[in-house]
Design a protein that fits this description.
Blueprint (H helix, E strand, L loop, with lengths): L3 E4 L5 E6 L5 E8 L13 H8 L10 H9 L4 E6 L4 E8 L3 H14 L4 H20 L1 H14 L12 H4 L4 H11 L5 E7 L3 H12 L21 E6 L4 E9 L8 H12 L5 H9 L3 E10 L4 E10 L3 H18 L3 H18 L3 H14 L6 H9 L3 H11 L5 E7 L5 H8 L2
């Protein structure tokens, strides 16, 4: 898959990814700012701003009018907020490239942030937070990262604190934009039935006037852990949800791809080690999955599961036993090859859609130290050796950085703490 990269005079990075035979186009704007850039007094503003994105501009003053404009041509639009990035995207027919660029540049430069709309939308944002709190399976990741990173921006929920959100006003949004939304802190990726030359021309027209300025540097996380940690969020549930994870490394580290492969072997599908033990062999739960997650400066390899609440202790015992076995004995050459084929197959299938292609290139450009192509990623995955995976397992799956987060109605964490210490 070939791409063309441009840098406009204002420092904005533009990437065009032609996809011959595709009649759609996805335009995605990714900003290098998310919730970990916030302070306690501004917690949640990144996500709240994303909610306000399609609420009206000077040119298109109503949310309904903007929605009707995009949906009127069969388009789909949305936005998302992570801890290190915020994204805005529109997918439509490739004949609507200029409209997509026009609307996205408009919301980034001319959003009204109408006080009436802010007051209405804060209720929506708080209800979204409530939704996650009511859904243990979705809330588990938030609880786990709070255990991992503590009372810091990286450990806070991206949604923010409700008391802070209720005080956000128009000036807060404008100040945030002027602090982080510099043209050289953004990338615009266009994927689909397009030509690079046309993309550059349209991007220059609509994004060329964005302002460039200095943005605050990221405050790196300080990780200090030398013994297992356990946290229980007490909640009455029909199923106990738990995450067992270990601290690893940030993006671009030499061990990144070995950890990706290791996670796939551990819990990347129904044929994985931990899925087989917990669900197929013992019938203790429905879902079991392992992921290797990386931020810019830190990371974790974490296994999450939903298990029978009457057999939660047994499930944790089995998971810890199997994870330790992997750390001590390693994995097999057959598991390594199967994991690579699974990862590459899933990756190729994902890249059949212009939205996923745009998302891949946007994240590569904003977060990674080098802009890799899909072919580069596959090559790096295939280059991982058995020795590298087993070395990563022995290096990172250690008791000193073990973290166990649980959502369930347990009066005490003592038994789980004893199990973690015995790992």
């Amino acid at each position: 898959m070939q791409h063309k990269r441009f840098i406009l005079e204002n420092g904005l990075r533009v990437i065009a990814v032609p996809m011959p035979g595709i009649a759609s186009v996805t335009v995605m704007v990714l900003v290098g700012a998310g919730s970990r850039y916030e302070k306690r007094s501004t917690s949640g503003i990144s996500h709240f701003l994303e909610h306000m994105a399609f609420k009206g501009t000077e040119k298109r003053p109503s949310a309904l009018g903007m929605a009707s404009l995009i949906e009127g041509v069969g388009g789909d639009f949305n936005a998302f907020t992570g801890k290190e990035v915020t994204g805005f995207h529109i997918k439509a027919q490739n004949t609507q490239l200029e409209l997509c660029m026009d609307v996205l540049s408009d919301i980034l430069q001319n959003s009204l942030f109408d006080p009436i709309e802010i007051k209405k939308e804060v209720g929506v944002v708080i209800e979204e937070i409530n939704m996650y709190e009511d859904s243990p399976m979705q809330n588990l990741g938030i609880v786990y990262e709070r255990l991992l990173y503590g009372d810091t921006p990286l450990g806070w929920d991206t949604g923010g604190f409700k008391d802070v959100l209720k005080k956000v006003n128009r000036e807060d949004f404008l100040k945030y934009l002027k602090t982080y939304y510099s043209s050289d802190n953004m990338t615009v990726v266009v994927a689909g039935g397009v030509t690079p030359e046309h993309v550059k021309k349209v991007a220059d027209t609509y994004f060329g006037s964005l302002k460039q300025f200095d943005t605050p540097k990221l405050q790196l996380v300080s990780e200090k852990q030398d013994s297992p940690r356990v946290f229980i969020k007490r909640q009455k549930t029909e199923q106990v949800h738990l995450s067992i994870g270990f601290r690893t490394v940030g993006l671009g580290h030499p061990d990144q791809y070995a950890l990706d492969v290791l996670a796939t072997i551990m819990g990347g599908g129904m044929s994985s080690r931990l899925f087989g033990e917990v669900r197929e062999k013992h019938g203790l739960g429905y879902y079991v999955r392992t992921t290797s997650d990386n931020y810019l400066d830190c990371g974790t390899i974490v296994t999450s599961a939903g298990v029978d609440k009457k057999k939660a202790y047994q499930a944790v015992e089995i998971l810890l036993k199997e994870i330790k076995k992997i750390a001590m004995e390693g994995v097999t050459a057959e598991e390594l090859q199967n994991a690579k084929e699974m990862m590459n197959g899933h990756f190729v299938l994902e890249l059949e859609d212009s939205h996923d292609v745009a998302s891949f290139y946007a994240h590569e450009e904003i977060l990674e130290k080098e802009l890799l192509t899909p072919e580069d990623v596959i090559e790096k995955t295939n280059a991982v050796t058995l020795e590298q995976v087993n070395a990563a397992a022995a290096k990172y799956l250690i008791k000193e950085t073990l973290n166990l987060a649980i959502i369930g109605n347990f009066a005490s964490s003592e038994t789980f703490e004893e199990m973690a210490k015995a790992y």
